[in-house]
Amino acid sequence: MTKNQGKAIEMKKIMSDMDLELMDLTDLDIDIDVIEDGKTFEENALKKAYTYHKATGLPCIADDSGLEVDYLKGAPGVYTARYAGDSATDQENIMKLLREMESAPEDQRNARFVCAIAFVLADGTAIITRGVCDGKIAHEMRGSNGFGYDPVFYVPEYNMTFAELDDMVKNRISHRAKALEQMKKYIKKLDVML
Ligand SMILES: O=P(O)(O)OP(=O)(O)OP(=O)(O)OC[C@H]1O[C@@H](n2cnc3c(O)ncnc32)[C@H](O)[C@@H]1O
Ligand SMILES: [Mg+2]
């Protein structure tokens, strides 16, 4: 359950080997705003999943994610979506990040994408998992796949940004993939409860 189509596509692909039907907020025609005021990705993910569970009566899965940059002391963190202002576009957020990182030397550009996944089951029980993907903030945008900050998130192992990587690769190594793979293990154990 997310308003972000980029996320929704990835979540559906990563979960496609599971025997369940994932519907996003657009599929369900639901337009509820969740105020993301948690101090952690986990708090926000749980708040989203509970809100949508209450509204639909369905088991709900939600993602809260963001970038932590060492040179910026962990910012933008839970403010990643609103880095350049409340209704900032991806482009504006990226521009602000590149500006803030202008004077950061190579060895201080380490960053990680973090993803918390919350799953609220039909009976209201919640499970939360977290995935992390390490990388670096690039000096300029590269690539056109994916969404959000993908063009400036550089993965040294592949010598490519997330936006240059094939989606099959991103969906294997990303923060979201790791959090969802862990969640799948719980779901497999619990599937009687769905
Ligand atoms: O809250 P929902 O409706 O799920 O959608 P959102 O886009 O607002 O999502 P978040 O509040 O979790 O904010 C996540 C921010 O981190 C960015 N982000 C998260 N995962 C990403 C990824 O895999 N690639 C690029 N950017 C990502 C995303 O673009 C947002 O700016
Ligand atoms: Mg959000």
UniProtKB/TrEMBL annotation:
GO cellular component: cytosol
Keywords: Hydrolase, Magnesium, Metal-binding, Nucleotide metabolism, Nucleotide-binding
InterPro entries: dITP/XTP_pyrophosphatase (IPR020922), ITPase-like_fam (IPR029001), RdgB/HAM1 (IPR002637)
Residues annotated for Mg(2+) binding in this entry: 64
Record-listed E.C. numbers: 3.6.1.66
Record: residues binding substrate: 2-7, 65, 147-150, 170, 175-176
Reported cofactor(s): Mg(2+)
Taxonomy, superkingdom: Bacteria
GO biological process, alphabetically ordered: nucleotide metabolic process; purine nucleoside triphosphate catabolic process
Positions of the catalytic residues: 64 (proton acceptor)
GO molecular function: dITP diphosphatase activity; ITP diphosphatase activity; metal ion binding; nucleotide binding; ribonucleoside triphosphate phosphatase activity; XTP diphosphatase activity
Cofactor info, note text: Binds 1 Mg(2+) ion per subunit.
Known catalytic reactions: dITP + H2O = dIMP + diphosphate + H(+); ITP + H2O = IMP + diphosphate + H(+); XTP + H2O = XMP + diphosphate + H(+)
Family the entry assigns: Belongs to the HAM1 NTPase family.
PANTHER family (alphabetical): INOSINE TRIPHOSPHATE PYROPHOSPHATASE, INOSINE TRIPHOSPHATE PYROPHOSPHATASE/HAM1 PROTEIN
Function: Pyrophosphatase that catalyzes the hydrolysis of nucleoside triphosphates to their monophosphate derivatives, with a high preference for the non-canonical purine nucleotides XTP (xanthosine triphosphate), dITP (deoxyinosine triphosphate) and ITP. Seems to function as a house-cleaning enzyme that removes non-canonical purine nucleotides from the nucleotide pool, thus preventing their incorporation into DNA/RNA and avoiding chromosomal lesions.
Record's subunit section: Homodimer.
Name under which the protein is recorded: dITP/XTP pyrophosphatase
